Amino acid sequence: MIKRKKSSDSVPSSRSLSAPADAEESVARKILETPDFRNASLRRKLFIFLFQRRSGYVSTEMLEKWNFESPKQSFSPEQRIRERIADLRRALVEYAAQSDSRLVCSLPDAVQGKGYRLEFAENDPEAPTLIFWKPHTEEGDVYIVYVEQLFYQDWSRRYLFRHVELNAESEEQALLDLRTKYLEEWSEELNASYPYVAYGEIQTRDALAKWFHERAYLTLNNAVTRRMDDARVWASSLILMGESTSNKYVRDVLKACIPLDIRLEILEEDGRTVGQARVQNAGQEELLRVSDLEPVSLPRGYGLRFNPKVGTILSLLTRVKNRQSGKTVTIFNSEFADSLEQIAFLLTDDRRVQRLIDQVGWKDGLPGQFQILFRFTIDSVATAHRMATPRAVAWRAYPD
User: Fold this and answer.
1) E strands of the chain, at which residues?
2) How many domains does the chain have?
3) 0.90 exceeded by pTM
4) To pair with 242 at 20 to 30 A between CA atoms, which of 119, 204, 283, 318?
5) By the 8 A CB rule, do 243 and 225 touch?
6) Are residues 354 and 254 in the same domain?
7) DSSP code of 195?
8) Same domain, 178 and 243
9) 295 with 273: CB under 8 angstroms?
10) pLDDT tens, 239-259?
């Protein structure tokens, strides 16, 4: 039998919420009156507990001390908290999808040390992020597609390496490409492997999935280029990560789309990875070359990683129409995958999206097809949280 904790800090009923003096309390009362909360005591108690403390953040430790009961007592306290928070977040999103206002439970931020908190917002159909992502949300079935990185490995020497321009999706073709372009590095002992997805692409996927779930009430489908139902994905609304040499969907979309004025290139020069952008201006080409990624040797068996020096890097955002399906395609591309996370943060924040639209001057509405080139300042430590806010340095709008 579960023993109920007796405490002066026991969870109150909805009647203990004071009269609705503001919009937040009014929304909270409406939420508690819905069947999803009226008939779910644990979800209801957790909501009230967080709502009463909404002026600050509630830590995991505070929730552990409160020790709300769970039918799965075999779980650890941390597991029970994650389970109940996930349940609460799903119910709040379902309520928000049918309401003009919403309360969203934000998750802890490990970097800034913040905890859980209920945050209030209006469901404004003219919010800048909703306008920015409207082509995708109206199309409905949205896929985000990322890439498994190709590496070459020689287990006899415990050696691993890659070339950024080689990204064949089959092991046979990958080895043939290496032998053709880098014969001096090829050997019979080499294998092609796809050991991981870039951290920055995973973080970007998670940030966008969170926004689509909480603001557009859509589940963002995800897929890896080497393992997917090509026909279904190709017919969907697409968010792509990577460049034409690594992501076959990027390559096929750009090959068939309208001519574009901005092109981001990732090159290898003398053992360095270098990013540069070519921008067409009235028939003249301007070359922006503001970055230099330096390879850093790791212990034997770990190959190489690319660690940015202090300086700047480039990222390119492209939106075009898929001429085959007629659906919208948004492409995230950067020489350094971690920077994509910062673009995702920008494009899921209403105030920052509005500033971006003001900067590029698209006062008459977001064009159906466009490109924006961003420049970042980065610390010598290669983490997305140590990058400055991306700044648009070139942009183009194209006719539909």
Assistant:
1) 101-106, 117-122, 142-146, 151-154, 159-161, 191-193, 221-224, 237-241, 262-269, 272-281, 284-288, 293-297, 304-308, 311-321, 328-334, 369-378, 391-398
2) 3
3) no
4) 283
5) no
6) yes
7) -
8) no
9) yes
10) 998 776 667 778 888 888 888
